[in-house]
From TrEMBL:
InterPro entries: EXORDIUM-like. It is found in: Secreted, Extracellular space, Apoplast. Residues 1-25 form the signal peptide. GO terms for cellular component: apoplast. The keyword Signal applies. Belongs to the EXORDIUM family. Keywords: Apoplast, Secreted, Signal. This is Protein EXORDIUM-like 2. Pfam families: Phi_1.
Length: 301
């Protein structure tokens, strides 16, 4: 540890010695070295989703009624007209700032596949097959997979995803990571897989897997609406884009930095951590979203 510490100091001093003479006469040069650059998601002139959009849900595997209600209540909260501070709907309103986006989401049909019709190990093509059971234009089908279902690429490269078909209908998938990879897909409600093992936040609904799904559902929905066909808002490669929420990964409150989610609210009775309130007072922890008006990651608290 000692040698590492001294090496860090040495490197810092070496870098400083290579800089121009930073005296009081040149303070602006030092400031420019550490000033953060604006985060820009470029609009690639493709179609975005707008208008009244129906969300059809496919529940694949074993979900309890309470687990389903947590996720459905979140979806119904997106367009609820509430004056509650830090509301879920105020989080979603940031979407309206994206050029050409003005949409209202409503939960439509729900399909329960509790018999695991395609087995408990799914490929990406299986997700599309499940989504195609209920999908048309002006609709998004969201596939939820339970904790005992393995999905190709789950947690190795993704906690959820969204896409579209050649027929131009959009779909999304989110899996319950409770038993497979909660440290990656349910952070900060679970200790991280890597890095400092700081205590996790308390799950707002008492279910780490489902509350983690809310975080990832919020992420893929924002991406679906603002970049449905790989030519909307994103930064980087179209095959691995940074989108409305993934550009702000790990930020949940003011003062966030890598490994620390930021300051969030705490329930005075249960100690549960949250930053958003939905229908019937249900609490959620939602990630920051990129605000195109300020070119920053916007949080609710």
């Amino acid at each position: 540890m000692t040698s590492t510490y001294h090496f860090s100091i040495f490197v810092s001093l070496l870098l400083l010695s290579c800089l121009p003479n930073l005296t009081s006469a040149t303070p602006r040069k030092l400031f420019s070295l550490v000033q953060e650059q604006p985060l820009i998601l470029k609009y690639h002139n493709g179609p975005l989703l707008k208008g009244n959009i129906t969300l059809n849900l496919v529940w694949y595997g074993n979900f309890s009624p309470i687990q389903r209600s947590i996720l459905v209540d979140f979806l119904q909260s997106l367009n609820s007209h509430t004056t509650t501070p830090h509301s879920v709907s105020s989080w979603w309103q940031t979407i309206q700032k994206y050029k050409g986006v003005s949409c209202t989401l409503a939960v439509g049909n729900q399909i329960l596949d509790e018999d695991y019709s395609l087995g408990k190990s799914l490929r990406s093509s299986d997700i599309i097959s499940l989504a195609s059971r209920s999908n048309q234009r002006s609709e998004i089908t969201v596939v939820f997979t339970s904790a005992d279902v393995a999905v190709e690429g789950f947690f190795m490269s993704r906690c959820g995803t969204h896409g579209s078909t050649q027929s131009k209908w959009a779909y999304a998938w989110v899996g319950n990571s409770e038993t497979q990879c909660p440290g990656q897909c349910a952070w900060p409600l679970h200790q991280p897989m890597y890095g400092p093992q700081t205590p996790p936040l308390v799950s707002p609904n008492g279910d780490v897997g489902i509350d983690g799904m809310v975080i990832n559902l919020a992420t893929v929905l924002a991406g679906t609406v603002t970049n449905p066909f790989d030519n909307g808002y994103f930064q980087g490669s179209a095959s691995a884009p940074l989108e409305a929420v993934t550009a702000c990964t790990g930020i949940f409150g003011t003062g966030a930095y890598p490994g620390y989610p930021g300051e969030v609210l705490a329930d005075g009775t249960t100690g549960a951590s949250y930053n958003a309130v939905g229908v019937d007072g249900r609490k959620y922890l939602l990630p920051a979203m990129w605000d195109p008006q300020t070119s920053t990651c916007k949080t609710l608290v």
